[in-house]
Amino acid sequence: xxxxxxxxxxxxxxxxxxxxxxxxxxxxxxxxxxxxxxxxxxxxxxxxxxxxxxxxxxxxxxxxxxxxxxxxxxxxxxxxxxxxxxxxxxxxxxxxxxxxxxxxxxxxxxxxxxxxxxxxxxxxxxxxxxxxxxxxxxxxxxxxxxxxxxxxxxxxxxxxxxxxxxxxxxxxxxxxxxxxxxxxxxxxxxxxxxxxxxxxxxxxxxxxxxxxxxxxxxxxxxxxxxxxxxxxxxxxxxxxxxxxxxxxxxxxxxxxxxxxxxxxxxxxxxxxxx
Length: 274
Hints:
Shape: globular
Helix content: 40-55%
Structural class: alpha/beta
Number of strands: 10
Radius of gyration: 20 Å
Distance between the termini: 56 Å
């Protein structure tokens, strides 16, 4: 007889090891709903057998599908608006006044289907237009663990339902082109600033380079305290001197006062590299 609790724990252990996500005992329904279709298609009846199948030779495709299902989350354009106002009113003015010849580099970590990095790019475009700034080679590096969401983000095309989640009509008209299939495509000038890369936040950041601003929002809540501390410490190493970190509204950078200085923006809090 299959031990359901043992199978669930085996799956939780596997997911935490390979994605960093830590599930509690109360998340069994979430796991069941997200994996139902995958289990049916693979003709697998329980989580213990799923973990076994993933770890067999040739299980890479199934593993990728499982990681995708468990790490793909909802996202919005200009989500939680305050970080984007802070970018517009504080961070961009500060950078362009002090940059010299260095191009602006921003990291969008756990970027999902691209709404965050494209929102950042739109904000840069609008700020530069208002202030009559010429192109400075700005780059947004957007990373995610999920291959499927990265593919969707790279396409830069969105259905009207996704467009309606946080994007106002003015920005739709300004930054998108209507595609023949009824979808909406991000204009090349906005999309070209964004470079997508596959990255598990547990892995090395050495190949990403240095950044002036890091958006790591609404992902740290899924990790253990130790992993969160490790990620924040390694993000600190990617920041240029005086660089800024923005986290989610329900997240905080605790116990790292030697690395980050809290900056109150009213409304909103961000963190500056010490």
